[in-house]
Amino acid sequence: MDRCSPEVDEEWAPKMFDSALLGGPVPYSAVLRLAGDLAVKGMSAEMWLESRAAFSSLVVVCGVHRFELLLTQSAWAYELCHVPGCGSLPLSARSIPYCGESEHLAERSEAELVRMARSWGSDRREDCSRTPAAVDPGYEGDQLLEAAVARGVYFEVADALLVSCYEERHMIEDMHHGLLAMEVSHAMDREELRMSKVALAAAKRIQQVAGGRCACGEQLSPGPQRGVPARFCSRLCVPASERSV
Fold first, then answer.
1. Using CA of residue 145, residue 151, residue 152, residue 153, what is the dihedral sign?
2. Torsion of CA 203, 204, 206, 207, to 10 degrees
3. What's the maximum distance between 2 C-alpha atoms anywhere in the chain?
4. pLDDT tens, position by position, 9-36
5. Cβ contact 139:126 at 8 Å
């Protein structure tokens, strides 16, 4: 049962209570912030403690969502990368819930990467709803593309991101008119070219680490191949564990 904590002096720390579930004193405001974040998960959401660093911080889990609470600040609760044990922030808690600081994003399946690309592209499109030709996938979009190159699904992810940011090409003139339709079409062309450059650079970085050759000894392709992660020369060399699913 939770109760007010007599161990924390309110003059030096946030007002806290002892939580049996969370393993000790927790700031009231941080729990309220966490409750707000969890509210969208529904009445059936279950939460458990992943880890606690004494009176410094703790990590709680709800489904695939992970939240860190800083115990030294009254209302500090934020979502972490979905990979258990990772202490990094996600690229976007809503659309890309994995960090870009490790291989965690590149470990996702084709379906996950495509879904995240669509979600992120839709967010960017909504942000630029009044200037549809100015949509920019940004750093987060590039991180998705780089993960897709590493996974061997660049073309699928790039297409999902491009269409969700702008529109299906055959629908541009139906959605926009006159000069605006032309501007959106040109913006889409420029972004498609830029994406291909991002993919080529990502492939080169991965291949440099691999010494420019596949594990079989063959030289690697200079750019992304459909269905082939950047560090392999062909689908035949891709282990079953690394094939896109």
1. negative
2. 110
3. 69
4. 555 567 888 888 888 888 888 888 787 7
5. no
Helix (H, G, I), strand (E, B) or coil at 202: helix
Angle at 131 between CA 127 and CA 133, to 5 degrees: 105
At 8 the three-state DSSP class reads coil
In angstroms, the CA 231 to CA 243 distance is: 12
**Residue 114 has which token pair?**
């495509």
Q: How many helices (H) and strands (E) does the chain have?
A: 6, 7
- Please state, as a whole number, how many other Cβ atoms lie within 10 Å of the Cβ of residue 21: 10
Helical H segments across the chain, by residue range: 28-38, 110-127, 138-151, 154-165, 172-175, 178-209
SS3 at position 61: strand
pTM of the shown model: 0.86
Residue 52: φ, ψ to 5°: -145, 130
Q: pLDDT tens-digit profile of 97-122?
A: 999 887 899 999 999 999 999 999 99
Per cent of the chain over pLDDT 70 is 91
Residue found by looking up tokens 């002096």 in the block: 9
d(CA 12, CA 72): 9
What residues are paired with 48 via a beta bridge? Answer: 61
The Cα-based distances of 234 to 150, 156, 231 in angstroms read 13, 17, 9
Q: Which amino acid is at 34?
A: L
Q: Which residue in 177, 185, 193, 215 sits closest to 145, CA to CA?
A: 193
- Contact of 59 with 68, CB cutoff 8 Å: yes
* DSSP 8-state class, residue 92: B
Q: What CA–CA distance (Å, rounded) separates 144 from 137? A: 10
Query: What is the chain's mean pLDDT, rounded?
Result: 88
